[in-house]
């Protein structure tokens, strides 16, 4: 069979399993209610953890791990919202949810600009102009540099932007990318960082610089420390740093590590969904998966059937994995780490 015939079989069986699941559990038809309930539950639990840390009931590490998990769930919810799965006909609630989820995950892109990059990603996954995936290190050889900048959308993208824009120009010249699409992708990538993403990263840069300088000062009598005014700002920002930014740094590292290695890059046959992704379930990825709601288990399913909720994908993943494996989708292809995410051996 051709890859398109295999893709059609996978889509058909996954959709059938979704219909069967919804028929068995009629409550699943209330997806706006379910989505909003998940949204509010995550926010309230996160706020509760933040309060308990603030009054010294729980330590910082419990707060960071707990909120990282909750923000991972909210990321999946945002991803569904980007595909207009909740409140499609109620723009006020839809956009309010997007805004709030962005505000509690400010290290990531503005979701309205990200929507442009994400739709392009689905259409051209694994190509040189798949800006969304390249922005999280997909396609780069593994090194200390890639590891350090895996969660970083500001300095990390500043270091790769020249190469990315050069590749996009070459794709335009070769007729593989329309000029107006290239411009739209560039603008979305740049303006999507303004203002919260850049500001949030800068706060973390200063926070970790202060920790390093204090360590050097106490250990080696290093004389230079941050000015008092900056230390005062850091002290004022401490609740934001611990309740929001540090959990998101952990969450974002885990998500980017998983997503950049389950997506293939560079030699994917355009339109061949089977070559776009793999399923990652290997045991040692579990600590990473925990803070991106087991993204590696289910994201490949999403590439075949886009407009379905993240929780339905999880509930029905066993059947989906069965038909995907049978029709050539890869599982736990760890060679991708050696091949810089290429589908084929290089």
From TrEMBL:
Superkingdom per UniProt: Bacteria
Originating species: Sphingobacterium bovistauri
Residue intervals of the Fatty acid desaturase domain: 60-333
Name of the protein this chain belongs to: Fatty acid desaturase
Transmembrane feature ranges: 32-51, 57-74, 95-113, 147-166, 187-213
Taxonomic placement: Bacteria, Pseudomonadati, Bacteroidota, Sphingobacteriia, Sphingobacteriales
UniProt KW keywords: Membrane, Transmembrane, Transmembrane helix
InterPro entries from the UniProt entry: FA_desaturase_dom (IPR005804)
């Amino acid at each position: 069979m051709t890859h398109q015939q295999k893709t059609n079989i996978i889509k058909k069986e996954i959709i059938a399993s979704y219909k069967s699941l919804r028929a068995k559990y009629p409550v699943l038809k209330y997806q706006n209610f379910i989505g909003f309930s998940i949204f509010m539950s995550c926010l309230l639990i996160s706020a509760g953890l933040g309060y308990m840390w603030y009054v010294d009931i729980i330590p910082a590490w419990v707060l960071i791990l707990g909120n990282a998990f909750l923000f991972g769930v909210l990321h999946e919810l945002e991803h569904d919202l980007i595909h207009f799965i909740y409140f499609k006909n109620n723009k006020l609630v839809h956009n309010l949810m997007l805004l709030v989820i962005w505000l509690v995950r400010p290290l990531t892109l503005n979701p309205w600009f990200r929507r442009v990059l994400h739709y392009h990603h689905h259409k051209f996954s694994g190509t040189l102009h798949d800006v969304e995936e390249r922005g999280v290190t997909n396609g780069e050889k593994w090194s200390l540099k890639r590891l350090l900048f895996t969660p970083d959308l500001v300095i990390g993208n500043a270091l790769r932007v020249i190469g990315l824009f050069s590749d996009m120009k070459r794709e335009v010249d070769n007729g593989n990318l329309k000029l107006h699409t290239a411009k739209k992708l560039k603008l979305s990538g740049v303006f999507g960082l303004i203002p919260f993403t850049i500001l949030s990263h800068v706060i973390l840069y200063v926070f970790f610089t202060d920790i390093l300088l204090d360590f050097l000062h106490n250990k080696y009598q290093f004389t230079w420390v941050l000015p008092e005014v900056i230390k005062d700002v850091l002290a004022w920002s401490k609740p934001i740093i611990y309740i929001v930014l540090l959990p998101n740094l952990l969450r974002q590292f885990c998500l980017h590590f998983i997503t950049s290695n389950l997506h293939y890059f560079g030699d994917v046959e355009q339109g061949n969904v089977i070559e776009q992704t793999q399923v990652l379930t290997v045991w040692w990825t579990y600590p990473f998966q925990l803070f991106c709601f087991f993204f590696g288990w289910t994201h490949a399913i999403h590439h075949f059937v886009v407009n379905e909720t993240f929780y339905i994908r999880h509930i029905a993943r066993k059947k989906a994995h069965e038909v995907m494996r049978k029709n050539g989708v890869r599982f736990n292809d760890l060679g991708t780490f050696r091949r810089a995410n290429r589908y084929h051996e290089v």
